[in-house]
Amino acid sequence: MSTDALKGNRTFDIDYDNDVFLKDGKPFTYMSGEIHYFRIPRIYWEDRLKKVQAAGFNAISTYVEWSLHEPSPSVYHFTAEADIVEFIRIAERLGLLVILRPGPYICAERDLGGYPAWLLTVNPKMQFRTSDPSHTFFVSRWFKMLWGQLQPMLYGNGGPVIMVQVENEYGSYPVHDLNYLLWLRDLYRSYVGNAAVLFTTDGPDTQFVNRGKIPGVLSTIDFGPVSTSPAKLFEPLRKIQPKGPLVNSEFYVGWLTYWGEEFSRSSIPPILKTMKDMIALNISFNCYMIHGGTNFGFTSGSGSSKHYQADITSYDYDAPISEAGDLTDKYFAIKDLIAGEKNTSNNKNEEKETPKGDYGEVQLKPLISLLKSPIGRDPVYTLFPITMEAIAERYGFIAYTTTIPYETQDPSVLQVNVRDRAQVLINEVEVSVLQYTVINETPLPSDVTKGKKLTILVENMGRRNYNLLSDCTKGIISNATLDGKLLQNWSIVGYPLTFDNISRLDKYARGSIMSPSVNFPDPSPAFPAFYTGTLNLPEDEPAQDTFLDMTGWGKGVVFINNHNMGRYWHIGPQRTLYIPKIYLLDYPHKNRIMILELHFTAPNQTVRFISKPLLSLKDKYDEPKVLSKSASRSKWSLSSLRSKSQKDVEK
Fold it and tell me: I need a labelling partner for 290 at 20 to 30 A (CA). Which of 147, 273, 434, 492 fits?
């Protein structure tokens, strides 16, 4: 029989009368693991997928991140780390089926829930996740490009994709735009047809399921380990969808972590109990996450609560396969359970941990203050402050500078609303810190007088990834006042810290290009400041994955060979950044380390490459215990800027 004929006989659909999926006409239940290609270096895709397959799963699930694939309007990226088709093909070669979740909203603890931030430049008032025409226009354009790549991957077309999710937990929000859901369903159908099953996912609550349900689309729910029977969690769903297969589309085997919290961990026995019960009830499920990976660069999002909460760089998620791809006790427990339930052999010969590099300390040296560095964008001049997106910036930092035009009071009070966190500087010396939803006003020192330069340097720490994504613009989001009087005439400079930005700064540091206005290096730059150093790997071995320990440093961003590895922050819990070997150069090449530090350095201005992650506030690894003198002299207290929960963690 020809290949085309075989493909023509492939079907994946639903037998509603018998509450089952039918794969090629036969009842089918899937056990899936969630794994995101956009959080994993491409060289590790096959390794991670093999580990999922070896655990006994017959499918994987992944979101599709729009912002990765269309980083600028009409500029599309489907190669290298964005080659989603190759990721799917690797899964197929390993015998894994695929569940796709293209959103366009994906949450996923990613900046703007996976939407590209340039949409906020096009229309800062865009109503995401609705039938707002400015929103649906770009979704339609994006899907046309995306599905041109993905249609051959659908099961009915010969590929491994059996399920395609429409939107994501739409029922969690009180705004219910049914017209949008119907429009999105029809858009999906125009590309998917009958080649895969469309489904929705919502929490196990009657209101959630009812608001998220789309006529003609299978409804599923999500929940973590429970002490009761999982069947009870499906009772709200059965009131709305009496027939059809039961699916837990996000079975939480770990959980996310915000800066300032303790690292989230999940107990293994409740996970095993609920998994065992779901298997016995023929419930299909997807373990979220089976492998979390890393939010490299500025891709982390933020939560939605009373206080702004930014996601940490690591997306380890306490998953069965660790951030660095190592196999945990949770992994082996789940593997044993699946083998026992499926009555299959259990190969226990896997290597639990891959070798890691313990490369030791690297001495860093000051390079230049951020505000004096020649990598800022050209200034934009405005009467009043405008947002980052209004000047076509998306990530990184943005500096607002004005001259104080009048004599000030004593004490003088600055009031301004920022997203997300701002350093207040007088003549480029820090005097205070502001933070979104925590503090929007601050007294200034008595020597702040007329004619001095006021700079408000705002850090975008990650746009909201949850809820309706309103109010996600960054920078200064209101007028600024000093002693109740409006401040005007601002110079605005963006510092996006792209690969090209940092590469250029590195060339200045090495003297390969000269700056006409800045002398490199500056031996005592004002914070925020760049620090640089080099790492030579051992002569007799290739590069290995490693972890960069930032204990003792304040808050900032790390670049390895000009690649953005992500943010660090001394409030924790994360103190190490995962450095995959793909970003390191073998001997005799020098690895260039560059750090943007916002507040203070470690006492000896060193960092250390170690072989173990420090993701918990309780983790130990011969850490320094003393902060630098510059930290102790600081005129402000971080603890005063944090929510109560963050203070409690630090105690």
Answer: 147
